[in-house]
Every structure is written in C-alpha cells, then in structure tokens.
Amino acid sequence: MPEPIPIPPLFLERMSRLLGDEYPAFAESLTDEQAHGLRVNTLKLSTDEFQKISPFPLGDKVAWCHSAFSLIPSPPHFEGGSAEKGRGIPEPGKHPYHLAGLYYLQDPSAMSAAELLGPLPGERVLDLTAAPGGKTTQLASLMQGQGLLVANEIKTKRLNHLVVNVERWGATNVVVTNETPERVADHFGAFFDRVLVDAPCSGEGMFRKDMGARLDWSEEMVAGCAVRQTNILRVAAHLVRPGGHLLYSTCTFAPEEDEAVVARFLQEHPDFEVEALPQLPGFTPGRPEWMGEITISNKQNDELRGAVRLFPHRLTGEGHFACLLQRKDGLAGELTFPWHSVRIPSPEWKVWQVFREETLGVDFPSERLRMQGDRLYFVPEDVPVMKGLRVTIPGVWLGNFKKERFEPAHPLAAHLQPGKVHNVLALSADSHEMAAYLRGESLPAGGQPGWTLVTADGWPLGWGKRVQGVVKNHFPRGRQIHS
What we know:
Blueprint: H1 9-19, H2 23-29, E1 37-40, H3 47-53, E2 58-62, E3 65-71, H4 82-86, H5 96-99, E4 103-105, H6 112-117, E5 124-127, H7 134-142, E6 148-152, H8 156-169, E7 174-177, H9 181-188, E8 192-198, H10 211-216, H11 219-237, E9 240-250, H12 259-268, E10 272-275, E11 283-285, H13 298-304, E12 308-310, E13 320-327, H14 346-359, E14 369-372, E15 375-378, E16 391-393, E17 396-401, E18 406-408, H15 410-415, E19 424-427, H16 432-438, E20 443-444, E21 450-456, E22 459-467, E23 470-473
Parallel strand pairs: 5-6, 5-8, 6-7, 8-9, 19-21
Antiparallel strand pairs: 1-3, 1-4, 2-3, 7-16, 9-13, 10-13, 11-12, 12-13, 14-15, 15-17, 17-18, 20-23, 21-22, 22-23
C-alpha cells in the first residue's frame, strides 16, 4: 500500500497561526477517517421508511440535514474492503437501492449548502456549478419536485456524473445545461429566486479524503482560485432577482477564498447584503479578522460573521464555508414565457399513447411533453425558452420513437413510483437474479410479453422486455455492476 501524501506544511503553518489554541484538535482531526453520510431521497420515501429497510447500519441524523444520516462504521466497504465483505455488509454505492435512487452518498458537511440556501417548492433555483449532482439532488428534494431547478456544469468531462445522478433521483423539475456562467447570465438575467455557487476551490477541506488535493495544493493555487471565485460570483450576481438569495460555498479553509472573496463582492455590489446563517451544532461564525490587509467597513465586518465555517474537529464532516447573500434591489428578469410549445406529430403521438396504455399506470400531461429529435421528454412546468443554450437534459427522458414503436428510457423507470407499471418483474435486492440483472444478463421469467419494469424489493430499478418467457435486459451498459 503506497504511503499517504503528506499534508502541505505551509497549509499547517497557516492553520496553526489562525486557529491558535484550537489547532491541536484540528490537526488531530486530519488524521481521522473521513466522514461518510447518506441522504435519503424524500421524493421517493421518508427517512423513517428508509430506516426500516436500510441494508447497512445508520448513525445519527445529520444535525443540519434532517433527511440524512452518518454511516457507521467508517466504512472500508466504500472502497470494497474485504473486511466489510466478510461481515456481509453491502457496499452502499453498489446496492440496488442506490441504483434505484433511494439515497445519495455524500460528506455530511457538503449537505449544508443546499439546506442553508433553503429553496421552497415552486421557486426558480439555479445550481451554477452543479457536478457531480449531490447539491442538485438535495435542492430537488427540498423543492419537492416543484418549480424549476436549472443545474449547470461548464466542464463536459464532469457532465455525465451530473446526468446520472439527476436521472436516478427521478425529479420532474430539473433541467441540466452545459454552459459557461457568463452565457447562463446573458440568457436568463435576474430570473432566479435562489442561486447556489459551490465554487471550485483549493480543496483544503477535503485533505482527509483526497490525496490529489494535497498533492495539487500551493499558495499560488489558493490565490488563483480566489480570482476565479471572484469572477464566478460577479457573474452569479446578475442571475438573482431583487429580494432573491445567492449562497456562496467552498470546501476550503483559506480566508483568501472565503471571507475575502465575499468582502470584495460586497464592495462591488452594494445592492447585496449578508443574511446571517443559523449557528447550528458544530458551526462557527465567519472570521473576517483572518483576511489580513483587506479594508472593509465595520458594517461589512459584522456581516461577514454571519457566514459559517465547518471544521472537522467540531463536527462529523469535512471542511466547508458558506455565506448567504440577499439582493436588495435591481430589475427582475423578464424571461417568464414558457418554452415554445412543439406539437408532437400525430404518428408519434399515437405510438406514445399505445405504449402508455399498454405499459404505464400513470398519465403525463400533454402540455408538458416535448420532442427533441426522436426523444420524448416530460419537462418542468412553465420551463422558459432555452434556445441558444446547450441543454443536456430538458426534463425526464421518457424514451425514444423507433419505427412505429416506443422504447422507454432508463430515467422513466427511475421517475416512476411503485405500482405505476402494468408488467413487473419483482426481484429481491439481495437475490442472485438481481445480481444477474445488474450484470446485464437476461432472466427467464414467464408472464405477459412486452416492456417490463424490474424492481428491487418493489422499488423501480430499470427496464427489461419479456419475449417468449425471457426478460431481455435493458439496464444501461455503463451502469452495470459486475462485482
């Protein structure tokens, strides 16, 4: 086993200087195992319901996220450790319940940003830097699937992780875009009630879990990140409606990337002010005194104490920073008209209706159905015009039209609730048949021919097609599990 990469000495020197008497406890926490958390998909089931069926031990509720638990023990089984396999504890990331979108695995501290932003059902919300999708799925749950949630990711290489997580979550109000923040701002303007900027950073808060972050860190990197974060925050300001909120968060301890970025923002944007965040268990106030020579007013200095810092020696989680800003005035965005209504051609409409009647026990309002090429989507209510933007997912992908037939897509299965499909192959989550299905194998199973929903203990997991007593496997190849 390779030797761990040491934590950069210059980082430790800085934290010793800043933390003073707290530093020994902080330094010791960096030698502990990383924290693991599990957040329940409340769009599909309650936390109480999940506790009754959880296939692995759950710890305490996360104090700042009531739909989440810590995972115990600190699991080698996240990496497939043989010790955990020998004790019969399944790997949470490979369990059928995970693939069915019943939960998301996430550092508990990372769950703070969406909760502190506090989106409400029916609002317009933007996750500006969304991959890999943890905060997007949490925002969707808090919004109860209502309103509009735009999840944007500029890096195409990270886009697939976002798409996979959004699809398995099953929310009906999410649109995924692949754009620069500048193009998003030019298109929408001051359109959103709430904007989340989980900014790319030096990753100091991830030093326990990410050896790459330790290797890449330098003082020059911190300075470069601060410039980048300042630019992203400037752009994000244009997307917030008057009275709306902007939450800036990082996973770093560096004051240059935290309080200093917000201080510069406040100096440039007098139409914004800090809204003090609650001091939840383990949270500590912002530390404007750590910024050094940056000159700010007494009012701004007091405001910055309304930000929060999360330290690993004070709570179960990694390092994070968050600051909530509210826009006081300005002009609201005028982009209120819906996406162009594109009528589905009569032949395709008839094919869809045949599939829906033969296969599904649920209807989809016709006014929210859109075609994009040969794909059919179920889009959010009142979704605005997005012509000119790279829209990766305009809604829930229901399936494809193929020569007088309709083939359902995997996200449709993830969206469906139990009991909403006529033809079902019910498998036990821990059965050999389930393992075979997740490997991509077809399964012998009698019953009505046609499209069949495969379930794990009743939870929709994916599609198969029954032909002559065999269910042909349609679980996506890229998501199959062969271990």
